[in-house]
Amino acid sequence: MSRRGRSLVFLLGAGLAALCAAAIADGYGERVARGYGELHPVLVAGDDLPAGAAIDPGALELRRVPDRFTPPGALRSAAEALGLEPVAPVPAGSYLLATQLRPPTDEAGPALARGRRPVEIAVSGADALLVAGGQPVGAKVDVVVTAEPSGSGDGRTYVAAAGVPLLALGPGEDGPGGSSAATLGLTRGQALRLIAAQSYARRVTVLPAS
């Protein structure tokens, strides 16, 4: 048999093996679903979560688990844990349950209105809050998002959250002189909107509330 013929036979064999593997995997998935129930997303701690500390969304993982193995009260998305803290340490690999979480209990910081949660985001322009002197923490700020331009024009700029409480302010990942890490008291909708904006916006800026 020629070299070309052997190559064709090898490719055909590899293709058949791939099809067989896919069929076996599909069959296994169907058997699992029949025996243990449909697969659903469940939130799992990717790292150890200490008690009393705000949950970092990056420390969470979403896995698909059969109904039979899903404990009651298991969270289905990272948004459900946003701004909450564990009441006791949660080991890595554990399911995250609603009964394990509570709103922050730090009474030293500014009080939050019902429905608001502390959320940390990277912002620019925080130095402007210090111009008037005094401590900006505890004051109300506007959060302004400037999106990347879609064409030849300037990016759209809009107020994404108006008059929200500033709970804490510190240097960002770039250190002093770069972006700042601002902890804001946000509603769930505001938090999701600003977290999404960090992935596509050119700038997220905080200004003294108008």
Mind sketching the topology for me?
Blueprint: H1 3-36, E1 39-45, E2 60-66, E3 85-86, E4 101-102, E5 117-123, E6 140-147, E7 157-171, E8 180-186, H2 188-200, E9 201-208
Antiparallel strand pairs: 1-2, 3-4, 5-8, 6-7, 6-9, 7-8
Distance between the termini: 82 Å
Largest β sheet strand count, sense and barrel closure: 5 strands, antiparallel
Strands side by side in the biggest sheet: 5-8-7-6-9
Question: How many discrete domains?
Answer: 2
Low-confidence stretches: none
- Give me the secondary-structure category: alpha+beta
Helix content: 10-25%
Shape assignment: globular
The overall pLDDT, averaged over residues, is 76
Describe the structure.
This protein has 210 residues and is of the alpha+beta class. It has 2 domains: 39-102, Antifreeze-like/N-acetylneuraminic acid synthase C-terminal domain (Type Iii Antifreeze Protein Isoform Hplc 12); 117-208, no CATH class. The chain has 2 helices and 9 strands. It has a 5-stranded antiparallel β-sheet, covered by helices on one side. The termini are far apart.
Brief sketch in words of this structure:
This protein is α+β, with helices and mostly antiparallel strands and 210 residues long. It has helices spanning 3-36, 188-200, and strands at residues 39-45, 60-66, 85-86, 101-102, 117-123, 140-147, 157-171, 180-186, 201-208.
